[in-house]
Amino acid sequence: MWKLDLPLKLKIFIWKACNDWIPTLANLERRGLKVNKVCPLCRRAEESTLHALWDCLKMRYARMDWLPKKAVPRSRYANFLEFITDIATRIDNDALRTLCVICWRNWFLRNASIHKDNKPNYSDVVWWSRNFAAKIHASSHVKDKGLLDSSLKGPLQDQLLCYLRYGKLQGGYWSCNPQ
Fold it and tell me: Name one Pfam family in it (predicted).
């Protein structure tokens, strides 16, 4: 995971998910908080890390749209680490990068739904994630291969890399938010 072309905050998110350190309802209950650990989105299962990032009924669009044929997961996994480890052995780095972004995006949409009372559109998760992963890969390719013009040094080079990585300038600032 650490060698993938992903922003550090996304790598840390996946690492936390693999260690059950993201605040799902089941993890909060395990840490002593009195919460109802049933998934607030589908209300059908306990909200574990695996459920919140992949198994929830709301994530079905991501499962249907993204899964490469050779990466069809087994029917049940004990946890997110087992899931990601199994899938990672059967797909290439581009697909793994996209899967990590899909899980990250699912977590973002889950939080928007719960904490901001938004009605997120889960049907575009795969499109958004592929686009984001491609921008990340393109920006690291440009930087790693020395494809930037040598005259682009300092702030101009930083702006180009930031544009390639994160998209448009919003309100005078580069948006790193996955919206």
Answer: zf-RVT
Tracing tokens 């930031």 back to the chain, one arrives at 162
* Diameter over CA atoms, the chain: 58
Which among 85, 123, 83 is positioned nearest to 106, based on CA atoms?
123
Residue 138 CA to residue 144 CA, distance in Å, equals 10
Q: What is the mean pLDDT of the chain?
A: 79
Phi then psi for 173, rounded to 5 degrees?
A: -130, 150
DSSP 92: -
* 3-class DSSP state of 169: strand
Contact 41, 27 (CB under 8 A): no
Cα–Cα distance for residue pair 119/81, rounded to 1 Å: 29
Contact 62, 125 (CB under 8 A): yes
SS3 state of residue 177 = coil
Name the token pair of 61: 């669009």
Best CA proximity match to 157, nearest among 167, 147, 169 = 147
